[in-house]
Design goal:
Elements (H helix, E strand, L loop, with lengths): L2 H19 L3 H9 L3 H4 L3 H4 L8 H15 L8 H19 L1 H31 L11 H83 L1
Helix pairs in contact: 2-6, 5-6, 7-8
């Protein structure tokens, strides 16, 4: 094993040790409810601490492992936060359990890999133009995986912001249409009231004219 291979292996081992060390209720609560976790928790793979390549069975086991730690009944002294975190992992698992939503999540990961690969290519081209060593830090599999992870989280956050923006626009459009409908309904009601008043007024005028005509005829007869 070369020195490079040993360092890579050592990094992987240390990485796995760090992952294993977070499997306590307190650390999982802190991870899922930390400031800024709203966007971080949009990535179901990150929420469940599993890889996109994992099988559904592996994801299910991981979910059960976390659900035991985060179930409110297992955290009686911190029940509210535990319930919130428990809801987060439930939502993530439902996303990955569904074939359709899991496929969409994997598309985000593939897009992240594509962008990271393109970024690496740009780095190499720049180094080549500068006649420098074309090695980049993402050549390390651990660093590459981390870059993909960061890009994936960014994409999930970007897509969520776009979704919310579209929802707000749709809501504003629905509100605008409803206001127009209300204005049209009020205008129709005003027209009905005006027509009714006009008809009543017209009938009053007709009645008054008829009464006046009868009175005039009666007076002329009396004169004769």
């Amino acid at each position: 094993m070369s020195e490079t291979d040993f360092q890579t292996f050592y990094s992987e081992v240390k990485h796995l040790e760090r992952e294993d060390s977070v499997y306590t209720s307190d650390k999982q609560l802190s991870r899922l409810l930390r400031p800024g976790s709203t966007y971080a928790n949009l990535n179901p793979f990150e929420v469940l601490l599993c890889d996109p390549e994992d099988t559904l069975e592996a994801i299910r086991k991981q979910y059960k492992k976390l659900s035991i730690l985060l179930h409110p009944d297992k955290n009686p002294d911190d029940r509210d936060r535990a319930q919130t975190a428990f809801d987060v992992i439930n939502k993530a698992y439902k996303c990955l359990e569904s074939e359709q939503s899991r496929a969409k999540a994997l598309e985000v990961v593939e897009e992240a890999k594509f962008r990271v690969d393109r970024m690496i290519d740009e780095k190499r081209k720049k180094l080549k133009r500068e006649k420098r060593d074309e090695a980049v830090e993402e050549d390390d599999p651990i660093r590459y995986k981390h870059s993909v992870k960061v890009m994936t989280m960014k994409l999930f956050a970007d897509y969520e912001r776009k979704r919310r923006s579209l929802d707000e626009r749709a809501q504003e459009e629905r509100k605008r249409k409803r206001e127009e409908e209300i204005e049209q309904e009020e205008a129709k009601q005003d027209d009905k009231v005006w027509s009714k008043n006009f008809e009543e007024s017209r009938q009053n005028r007709v009645n008054s004219w008829q009464s006046f005509s009868k009175s005039s005829k009666s007076k002329r007869k009396d004169i004769r």
